[in-house]
Amino acid sequence: MIRMNNKIKNFYGIGDMFFSFMVCIELYFMMVFLTDVLKLNVAMAGTIVSITAMGDLITSFIAGGIVDKSNLKWGKYRSWLLFAPGIASVFFVMEFSGVGSATTAGIVFTICYLISHTLWNIFYTASRALAGAVTDDPTERAHISGRISAWMNAGRIAGSKIVILMIGFFAATFGSGESQLIGYTITALITTVLMCLGYLIHFKITDGYDKPQEATKENATKQTVTIADMFKGVGKNPPLISVLVCEFLRLSGYYMMMALAAYYCKLVLGNPAAIGNLLMAMNICCLIGALCSKTFVTKLGTKMTTVLGMGGAAAMMVVAMMVSPNLTGVTVCLAISQLFYGISFGLTTSLYANAATFAEFSTGKNTAGFIMGLLSFSIKGAIFIRGLIITFVLGFIGYSAEMTVTTQVVGNTSIAFFIIPAVLIAVGILPLMLMKMKDSDVIDMRKEIEARKNVQVSAEAQ
Fold first, then answer.
1. Which pLDDT belongs to residue 214?
2. How does 249-288 read in b/e, with b if 16+ C-beta sit within 10 Å?
3. Fewer beta carbons under 10 A from the terminal one: N or C of the chain?
4. Measured distance CA(117)–CA(301) in Å, rounded
5. How far apart are CA 52 and CA 384, in angstroms?
6. Which residues span the membrane (predicted)?
7. Rounded to an integer, what distance in angstroms lies between the CA atom of residue 425 and that of residue 341?
8. Quick check: 302 pLDDT over 90?
9. pTM score, two decimals?
10. What is the DSSP track for 284-339?
């Protein structure tokens, strides 16, 4: 069986940390950038969010297929980590350039978003597939999954506090008037450079684990994965269907809460600056939860640990609603909620990797790249739904940058921030409960797969 080296155990996920740090600009401030910096009305901003989310969703679906069909110089997965992040970074920075009029800037934002995210989807999928390829043991997969999630949350912790400070600092230093545009541009540039360096580390420490296939007709016939094979890996994979639906609902709730945090602090708390400490507390606890996920897996298994985390997260969101608008109470409740959420979040990669093993066991073809790409598909689908709901919520309350805050606005914003995400996450538990595959089954399937390969090798040698 394949085992991880110590460098991978300790440092795989640094790229994801800087990726998460960079994504904080979009995750927390995309809608704010469109409405408050570019001064677009809610309808146009919502249209941009919907278009970009839909395009992102489509490309995330095909990203895994692109990775599975590739056979590049430095390996199927590793090669993408070497050059794709740098190209994507150019377009990410251009998103926040604010070229021309507000309408022109919105169009440029949309085009650059779609290009950068297409490349993101490919190298993000490659990185997650590579994480599944460095080990085939469920416990080690839980370990690397937890570490990846921990690194990601470390990036979010830093981003939740530092990104807004960077934007303000660079805006004040190099900008003029009240515009924060230059702050967004420079912050995007710096964070993308760090992200590229992080994935270069992934590339280096996995040397020897992902070797390119020999380009011979014999090997091409044996190892070719067709589009039909990829879809069989999904259609004949009940565990994957359960994970996909669960992740879609869980992430929809999470991303909606994160995107509304700035509006909650502004409209309900009357303190826009509170978002820094609130997000930092939430992300620190999410990090702790991710680090603890492996401990719970050894006692409860991957599935029940995920159920525990999601249930606890949803329950504490409801409690937070009850103590709102007390900032201290809300911060404590949401921090505990994210502690639970982190436990489930820490097992995401492990769940998909186990589903990929089931697919190979059922179909005889390794479609890990395509299946790990569906992880990104769930994320993008959740972001798309989040965009629709947020656009509806902001339109419903009649939001504008200079609006008058009423009691009704406070109530509607609170429901959107706490209750809707809690319901989505709670409902996400149901499909996971239908999944029958246990961790011990994954080990047995892996042994069977290896046995089949050994038989095939012996037959070819005779």
1. 55
2. bbbbbbbbbbbbbbbbbbbbbeeeebbbebbbbbbbbbbb
3. C
4. 34
5. 8
6. 12-34, 40-67, 79-99, 105-124, 157-175, 181-201, 240-262, 274-292, 304-323, 329-353, 374-401, 413-435
7. 9
8. no
9. 0.68
10. HHHHHHHHHHHHHHHHHHHHHHHHHHHHHHHHHHHHHHHHTT-HHHHHHHHHHHHH
Rounding to the nearest 10 degrees, give the CA dihedral for residues 264, 268, 274, 277: -60
Which amino acid, residue 292?
C
Alpha-carbon span 270 to 381, nearest angstrom: 31
Would you kindly state where each structural domain of the chain is located, as residue ranges?
8-209+224-452
* Phi, psi of 146, rounded to the nearest 5 degrees: -65, -40
End-to-end CA distance of the chain: 24
Contact 347, 293 (CB under 8 A): yes
Q: How far is the C-alpha of 419 from the C-alpha of 111, rounded, in Å?
A: 33
How far, rounded to the nearest angstrom, does the alpha carbon of residue 96 sit from its chain's CA centroid? Answer: 21
The CA distance from 40 to 172, in Å, is: 22
CA separation, residue 312 to residues 136, 256, 336, 436, 453 (Å): 30, 18, 8, 22, 42
147 alpha-carbon distance from chain centroid: 14
DSSP code for 177: T
Q: How far is the C-alpha of 459 from the C-alpha of 455, rounded, in Å?
A: 6
pLDDT above 90 as % of the chain:
22
Give the C-alpha separation, 371 to 119, whole Å: 17
Alpha helices in 1-101 (DSSP H): 6-11, 14-32, 42-69, 78-95
- Nearest-angstrom CA–CA distance, 4 and 12: 10
Residue 297: per-residue pLDDT? 83
Note whether 95 and 160 are within 8 A (CB). Answer: no
Q: Could you tell me what percent of the chain has a pLDDT over 70?
A: 90
**Which residue has tokens 């016939």?**
221
Cβ neighbours for 301, distance < 8 A, ≥ 6 positions apart:
438, 439
Cα 332 to Cα 278: distance, rounded to the nearest angstrom:
9
